[in-house]
Design brief:
By secondary structure, this protein is an alpha/beta fold. It is built from 14 helices and eight strands. The protein has one domain: TIM Barrel (Alpha-Beta Barrel). It binds hypoxanthine and zinc ion (ZN).
């Protein structure tokens, strides 16, 4: 069996994927048309084209606008999970969503719609999902606190954590201590996008001041030995996104060797790292491609590939019995 065959067979867990970055292009185009949202093109091959991170975020906001009603959101979640299963043998995902980017629905409406989509995808395709509400760091710290208050007022067994995304330069982690502290007091698990394009110090701040148990991305810390040592010693789990990191570090445009990127260094150093797609219909990538490209670039053998898949289960916030099931399924497929 080739490594790629093994990768395709493994039932996978991903911990870093955004609802709004994982809506298949045809679904996005149809929903946008229904709401009179003007797109650059209605060609599904090009509707998600972007050339910079900020352009990507503008497009991401358009997807948020297209997911306007509870019915849109339920469909978006369902189509996203089915796409993950079809392209990457996705078995379980902890999925970010950006409640404060959806102005036409309340937090409670959004969660209820997402849960309906998750239940339908689970029944039809055997793919499970839990949710992480994401703060948009370009909005104010007050909006972030209000989001956490809404999470507390509308608890759901499906919503297991709080995250923060968007542009680190505009919204460094120290601005959001109040929201994360409130979440921690209410037993909500915490993670943060840090060190993606922002400075390495954002990784340390997210751990020390925000109480994060995971870091999303983290690549910048490979350029700061002190932060790197701090994060390594903390044992924190990193959700790595290979194609995103390659995009940011110039692999596609400047011919940078992918074996030298931040994420490549983190994997080689043996940190607790899992692989995820981030925004798989926009990038575009999928879970099989993430694993295959990492394996080929770093020369991983079968045991190392299975080790990456196991790291995702270890780093997840699923309950112990779910983790045991996921491990057993992984072991069975890896034999
Ligand atoms: N980083 C920052 N903002 C985002 C991301 C990301 O990976 N995905 C969607 N919004
Ligand atoms: Zn992300």
């Amino acid at each position: 069996m080739s490594i790629d065959d093994l990768i395709a067979r493994l039932p996978k867990v991903e911990l870093h994927c955004h609802l709004e970055g994982s809506v298949p292009a045809p679904t996005f185009i149809e929903l946008a048309a229904g709401h009179g949202i003007e797109l650059k093109t209605t060609d599904p091959e090009h509707v998600y084209d972007f050339f910079s991170f900020l352009e990507f975020l503008d497009l991401y906001y358009q997807v948020c606008d297209a997911l306007a009603t509870p019915a849109d959101i339920e469909r978006g979640v369902y189509d996203s999970l089915v796409h993950g299963k079809a392209t990457g043998n996705l078995r379980y995902r902890e999925m970010f969503f950006s409640p404060t980017n959806h102005s036409q629905v309340s937090y409670g409406q959004m969660v209820d719609a997402m849960v309906s989509g998750i239940k339908a995808a689970e029944a039809d395709h055997g793919v499970s999902c839990r949710l992480i509400a994401d703060i948009n760091r370009r909005q104010s710290p007050q909006v972030a606190v209000q989001l956490v208050e809404a999470m507390i007022a509308h608890p759901s067994e499906y919503v297991i954590g709080l995250g923060i995304d968007d542009d680190e330069a505009t919204g460094p982690p120290e601005m959001f201590v109040d929201a994360f502290t409130l979440a921690g007091r209410h037993g909500i698990r915490r993670t943060a996008h840090a060190g993606e394009l922002g400075v390495a110090a954002n990784v340390r701040t997210s751990l020390e001041l925000l109480g994060c148990e995971r870091i999303d991305h983290g690549y910048a810390m490979t350029r700061d030995p002190e932060v790197f040592a701090f994060a390594r010693d903390s044992g924190v789990h990193f959700t790595g996104c290979w194609f995103v990191n390659n995009f940011h570090e110039g692999v596609f445009t400047e011919g940078v060797d992918p074996a030298t990127t931040g994420l490549a260094q983190m994997i080689r150093a043996g940190l607790p790292v899992s692989l995820s797609t981030d925004d798989p219909t926009m990038i575009p990538t999928d879970l099989n491609a993430e694993y295959a490209s990492v394996a080929a670039t770093l020369g991983l053998d079968e045991a190392a590939v299975v080790g990456l898949a196991r790291a995702a289960i270890d780093g997840s916030w699923a309950d112990d019995s779910t983790k045991a099931t996921l491990r057993a399924e992984l072991d069975a497929a890896a034999r």
